[in-house]
Design brief:
about 375 residues, alpha/beta, 7-stranded parallel β-sheet, 3-stranded mixed β-sheet, 13 helices, binds nicotinamide-adenine-dinucleotide
Length: about 375
């Protein structure tokens, strides 16, 4: 055998092994999973092993789509993928993404996969521009070359920076104040130009603060490290963390703490189904805020967790974090108008109850919460 031939042989073997490993677990019965006989549309959900992506996969399955999850598990959990095939891969792998689209007859893509910590983005902007911009552009290239025409994108209220008015409408100028927001803003602009040049139809969804857990208790929020307020307050209530930090108590708000618009993750999930239907039914590309239009201060969230859990929440006051605006509340009328979206679970009590129920049900700390509160939450005692 010549050197070249043996090299080729090794490469073929390498590719075969690589493919076998990466497709492991999904080779089984692609055709039955896809259930083409039932004429289900297949939607690729990048980042579908993560918090919002996994809830969205459930919402798509319920709406008679086949959700195919692609996630590299850098932050997600394979156990959160329950409603369709799972492919472990990086969105930046052009060749592999094209193959996934072909193999699973993907009709549309919902793109969650990203790094999403504001503070980390200030320290490591390279990581954010690499993953959220560069990898997303590679993904978009593969999708366009594979003939995908519909794309729903997870954007963020972080693209607005320090807003000029409240509540924030979609046409508010976007001047992000951190690399995370900048990376999302860049992809928003790319989508606009890709629509002009290639006819890609896109829905950009700018979430405010996602919170809560699946009301049926099948999914929840499990980040490491956790940076979101509701799970952090719950951890302090359950004694998993000694206290929760309150960043800034001198804001120009009624109780001095920052105000955010908390939107239940299942309501967010439903908005993605509606957004994709909007595009597939011939609707125009659009950018929409997903929030409730109501804000809650940090102290209000702490009080709600304390009340719903029946436990004192230890809290420690700390200084403001740079780049944290005092108030971020959505003007959410456009999403209601364009999509007919009506949040069902986004009142603070339901957000806290669902998050608490999920956390308590999977924690050995269950005995830390009063049995009356557990019964109220519908959690079975161990
Ligand atoms: N959680 C919020 O409040 C919030 C608010 C605004 C916007 N968003 C956006 O929503 C999306 C989902 O957020 P989340 O809270 O569910 O985050 P998450 O970290 O739980 O989920 C992101 C998922 O993407 C995966 N991923 C990351 N990089 C990848 C890559 N290169 N290839 C394949 N998979 C990759 C991770 O493993 C993870 O499962 C993100 O784009 C985020 O920026 C979230």
């Amino acid at each position: 055998m010549t050197l070249d031939a043996s090299r080729k042989g090794r490469r073929r073997q390498f590719n075969k092994e690589r493919r076998n490993v990466r497709w492991e677990g999904i080779e089984t019965d692609v055709s039955t999973i896809l259930n083409k006989e039932a004429h289900l549309n297949a939607v690729l959900i990048t980042g579908g092993a993560g918090y919002i992506g996994s809830h969205t996969a459930k919402a798509f399955a319920r709406s008679r789509f086949t959700p195919v999850v692609l996630d590299d598990l850098s932050k997600g959990h394979s156990c959160a993928v329950k409603w369709g095939p799972f492919v472990k891969a990086d969105i930046g792998d052009y060749v592999f993404v094209r193959e996934v689209v072909r193999r699973f007859h993907i009709d549309a893509v919902v793109h969650f996969a990203a790094d999403a910590y504001v503070g980390e983005s200030m320290r490591e902007p390279r990581r954010y521009f690499q993953n959220n911009v560069s990898n997303t552009l590679a993904l978009l290239g593969a999708l366009l070359d594979a003939g995908i025409r519909y794309f729903v994108f997870s954007s963020s209220c972080a693209t607005y920076g320090i807003p000029e008015t409240f509540p924030i409408p979609e046409n508010q100028p976007q001047f992000p104040v951190n690399p995370y927001g900048e990376s999302k803003r860049f992809v928003e602009r790319a989508l606009w130009w890709y629509g002009e040049a290639y006819g890609l139809k896109s829905a950009t969804l700018r979430y405010f603060n996602a919170a809560g857990a699946d009301p049926e208790g099948e999914l929840g929020e499990d980040h490491d490290p956790e940076t979101h307020l509701v799970p952090l307050v719950i951890q302090a209530a359950l004694g998993i963390k000694p206290w929760v930090e309150i960043y800034g108590t001198d804001y120009p708000t009624p109780d001095g703490t920052a105000i955010r618009d908390y939107i239940h993750v299942s309501d967010l999930a439903e908005a993605h189904v509606l957004a994709l239907r909007h595009l597939m039914d011939g609707g125009e590309s659009t950018s929409l805020n997903l929030g409730t239009g109501r804000g809650h201060s940090i102290r209000e969230v702490i009080a709600a967790v304390s009340q719903r859990s029946g436990r004192h929440v230890p809290a420690r006051e700390a200084g403001r974090r740079p780049g944290d605006p005092p108030v971020l509340v959505a003007d959410a009328t456009l999403a209601k108008h364009v999509l007919g979206w009506r949040p069902q679970f986004s009142d603070l009590a339901t957000i806290v109850d669902t998050a608490l129920r999920w956390r308590v049900a999977r924690s050995p700390e269950m005995n830390l919460i009063s049995s009356e509160s557990m019964m109220d939450l519908g959690v079975q005692a161990p």
